Automatic annotation (TrEMBL):
Residue ranges occupied by any CBS domain in the UniProt entry: 1-60, 68-124
E.C. number(s) listed in UniProt: 2.7.7.9
UniProt enzyme class: transferase
Ribonucleoprotein found in the keyword field: no
InterPro entries in the cross-refs: CBS_dom (IPR000644), CBS_dom_sf (IPR046342), Mannose-1P_guanyltransferase (IPR050486), NTP_transferase_dom (IPR005835), Nucleotide-diphossugar_trans (IPR029044)
Single Gene Ontology MF annotation: UTP:glucose-1-phosphate uridylyltransferase activity
Full protein name: CBS domain protein
Length: 355
């Protein structure tokens, strides 16, 4: 998993060794990243580099350009866990910058983070093509997944949460005001991940865009997430449950309670047999998060409108297993204005603090 506090490790080549020491100590990553005005990597500085400079009688006011490693090992944004482990092992280093094709630093990988949690090779498909008609006028000039919650688009909250679990291969379906989504996320380099876009030329329902995924990209179960939810679901536990049981699909569910506001009559003809005052009925509803086996994704025909319930029913009818994964963590579907206002109140307590 990429360290997300790497921005605090940057400094200029004319910064002093004293400043580098402060950054290295404060950052707890044992490294400082030397960048130019455009964020391009010029070198790295470690505690060992500084100590070797002091042995050469450099003062603590000397520029880090005097001691930095100008040819550090780097990783591209679309690296695999195996690539990172191989590079870290062969170079005998504890950390390596992630650099895009333009030489700009977009992240930092460390051996300790790699060993804590592996990068997950499963593709993630984010559904962000809807019109958000129930949230007008907010969505008149902004796609619903880009509406800000706590100052950040809700789709970015979803993306960041998945990145924190180790996912790095993302596909986003876009249709309505697609340029606003693409302009914000671009290729994912800012987060050290890969993002590709699936363009719906016409709305294809809640599952039809799956048919536009490149077949070669779907060799593992695909995590599908609606772009209009806020949640703290444990994606690691979800994927482990799916891999353990290998169903055609795993559907995240949420308990929904509905109270009838009247006394409910049970009867036999005109004879009343029971009266229940304001009974509560319990249901499980889809939480908008799925894990789909490759064959399920491959079964979706390109360009054909299809909703997720119909896709799942096709495979249930064919005798394939579709499992539930109950979500007990925080979950909110932002479908109406009241939900959007609730998300603004919840953001600091739930999303930022993980409660």
């Amino acid at each position: 998993m990429i360290s997300h506090d790497w921005q605090a490790l940057r400094l200029r080549a004319d910064a002093s060794l004293r400043q580098a020491i402060e950054i290295i100590d404060r950052g707890a990553k044992r490294i400082a990243l030397v960048v130019d005005d455009w964020g391009r990597l010029q070198g790295t500085v470690t505690d060992g580099d500084i100590r070797r400079g002091l042995l050469r009688h450099l003062s603590l006011d000397a520029p880090v350009g005097e001691v930095m490693n100008t040819q550090p090992r780097v990783l591209p944004p679309q690296y695999s866990r195996e690539d990172a482990l191989r590079l870290l092992g062969s170079a005998q280093v504890l950390q390596v910058p992630i650099v895009d094709a333009d030489g700009v630093v977009v992240g930092l990988e460390t051996l300790s983070d790699l060993l804590k949690r592996p990068r997950l090779e499963n593709p993630v498909f984010l559904m962000a093509g809807g019109f958000g008609t129930r949230l007008r006028p907010l969505t008149d000039d902004c796609p619903k997944p880009m509406l800000p919650v706590g100052g950040k688009p809700m789709l970015e909250h979803i993306l960041q949460d998945l990145i924190d679990y180790g996912f790095y291969r993302f596909y986003i379906s876009v249709h309505y005001l697609r340029h606003k989504i693409i302009d914000h996320f671009q290729d994912g380099g800012r987060w050290g991940v890969s993002i590709q876009y699936i363009h719906e030329d016409q709305p294809l329902g809640t599952a039809g865009a799956l048919g536009l995924l490149p077949k070669e990209a779907v060799q593992r179960p695909v995590v599908v997430v609606n772009g209009d939810i806020m949640t703290r679901v444990n994606y690691e536990a979800l994927l482990q449950d799916h891999d353990r049981h290998t169903p055609a699909a795993t559907v995240c569910t949420r308990q929904y309670d509905f109270q009838v506001p009247y006394g409910v009559i049970e009867h036999d003809g005109q004879r009343i047999t029971e009266i229940t005052e304001k009974p509560v009925h319990h249901f499980f509803v889809s939480a908008g998060i799925y894990v789909l086996a490759p064959q399920v994704v491959h079964s979706v025909q390109p360009g054909v409108r299809l909703d997720m319930p119909d896709l799942l029913k096709q495979h249930i009818s064919a005798g394939r297993q579709v499992r539930m994964f109950p979500v007990h963590e925080y979950w909110l579907d932002i479908g109406r204005m009241g939900d959007f206002e609730l998300a603004q109140r919840d953001i600091l307590r739930v999303i930022h603090h993980g409660q």
